[in-house]
Amino acid sequence: MEETPGARDWTAVDRYFEALVAPDEAVRAAAVAQQAGGLPDIAVAPNQGKLLHLLAAATGARRVLEIGTLGGYSTLWLARALPPDGRVTTLELDPAHAAVARSSFERAGVADRVDVVVGPALASLDAMVEDGTEPFDLAFVDADKENLAPYVERCLALLRPGALIVVDNVVREGAVVDAAHPDPRVQGVRRMVELLTGHPRLDTTVVQTVGTKGWDGFALARVLP
Q: Considering the entire predicted model, what is its pTM?
C-alpha cells in the first residue's frame, strides 16, 4: 500500500499506544506464524484485536462467531476474553490457513475453546442455521467483502437479541463512496450498507480508522429484539 500523507504518523501513534494494548508473547507469536506461513498481511492490528477483546468481555459474551479465521490472530484476542465455558466458532475457507491458526491456538493454550470450521463460509453458516445452533453473543466478520451482505443476513439468524456484529474493512480507503467503483470488494461493502440502512432488526454505526493498516474502518451493529 502506497504511503499517504500522515500514514507515518498514524503508525507511530499506534506504536505509542501499544503499551496499553499489551499484546503478550502468544499474541506476537500468532502474528509471526501468520507471516512465516505466507499468509496475506490482512489480519487486524493489535489495537483492533484488543478492541474485539474488550467488546467480547464488556458484553459478557460466551459464544462468539467469527467469519474469516486467517491465521487466528483476531480469534486469539476473542478467545481470551471468554469465560471458562466460552467458545469461539471460526470459519475459514483455506485449510492451510486453518492449520496455521490451530497451531497458534495450541501454543496459546486456547485450543479447547476454539472450533475451526473449514469450508465455504456461507455453506457452513447455512448448516449451522439448519442445525439450530445455540445463538451467539457476538459475531466478527472479516472475510471476502463480496459476500458481506449475505454474511450479515446469516449472522442475524444465528445471534441472540442484544448481540453485536462487527464487520471489518468497510471504508476501503474512502472508495466506498464511489457507486461506480470497479472493485467488487467495494461493491460488496456497498450492498451490505444498503442492507443495514434502516434495517428493522439492526442498530448500526460505522467508525473510520487510521493506523498501521492505513485508512479503513468497521461497522458495529446491535441486534434488536
A: 0.95
pLDDT, tens digit (0-9, with 9 covering 90-100), for 107-121:
999 999 999 999 999
* 121-150 residue pLDDT tens: 999 999 999 999 999 999 999 999 999 999
Q: What is the model's pLDDT at position 7?
A: 65
Spatial neighbors of 223 by CB under 8 A, at least 6 apart, are 156, 159, 160, 161, 162, 163, 164, 165, 201, 202
| Sequence-ordered alpha helix ranges (H) in the chain | 7-16, 18-21, 25-36, 46-58, 73-79, 95-108, 121-130, 148-158, 184-196
d(CA 158, CA 67): 12
Domain 7-223 has CATH 2.40.40.20: no
Residue 22's pLDDT is 86
* Domain positions in the chain: 7-223
Secondary structure class of 91 (helix, strand, coil): strand
Other Cβ atoms less than 10 A from the Cβ of 183: the count is 14
Angstrom distance (rounded) from CA 192 to CA 189: 5
Element (H, E) at 204: strand 202-211
All three cell numbers of 157? 439468524
Q: Give φ, ψ of 91 to 5 degrees.
A: -105, 130
CB 132 within 8 A of CB 154: no
Beta bridge partners of 209: 216
Q: What is the dihedral of CA 10, 170, 64, 126, to 10 degrees?
A: -160
